[in-house]
Write a structure and sequence with these properties.
It contains three helices and six strands, in the order αββαββββα. It has helices spanning 2-9, 39-52, 116-124; strands at residues 15-22, 29-34, 66-69, 91-96, 105-107, 110-112. 14% of the residues are buried. The longest helix is centred in the middle third of the chain and has 14 residues, at 39-52. β5 (105-107) and β6 form a beta hairpin. 24% of the residues lie in helices and 23% in strands. The strands form two sheets. A four-stranded mixed β-sheet has the order 2-1-4-3, with helices on one face. It starts with a helix and ends in a 7-residue tail after the last helix. It is an alpha+beta fold.
Length: 131
């Protein structure tokens, strides 16, 4: 019976301790994951742990808005569908995806998508500062 329980526990694979550093946060988040867990589920778990601990800055809960990097494997983000244990690394960095810039389009001579401050500056030829 004891042998059966040990085999059942190890059926999913080996567990590993993962350390995820969130940019802008005080320190890393550490939690246990299985080697076969996908990168997407590791990001989701890291975000849940981050929120549970009440850390700042507030990040949100959508794992699609984040990228996971492994500093020892270069500057490319990890694919969300890879197994986390396939890399052999245990330390990762979590970053928010860069926001796409607001593209200004011209339709029949009228601009769409610009900001109100830019419109005021252009209309009155003034410089309105934000501070």
């Amino acid at each position: 019976m004891l042998l059966y329980n040990k085999q059942k526990k190890n059926a999913k694979g080996n567990r590993i301790l993962i350390s995820v550093t969130v940019l802008g946060s005080a320190g890393p988040i550490r939690f246990v994951a299985y080697e076969e867990d996908l990168v997407a589920s590791v990001i989701d778990t890291a975000l849940k742990c981050y929120a549970r601990e009440g850390r700042l800055p507030l990040l949100g809960s959508d794992f699609n808005d984040f990228l996971l990097y492994c500093p020892s494997f270069g500057p490319e983000a990890l694919s969300a569908w890879n197994a986390i244990g396939s890399l052999g690394a245990r330390n990762f960095t979590l970053c928010k995806k860069p926001e796409e810039k607001n593209v200004v389009k011209e339709v029949n001579g009228a601009r769409k998508g610009g900001s109100f401050k830019a419109w005021i500056n252009k209309s009155f030829n003034l410089k309105v500062s934000t501070h």
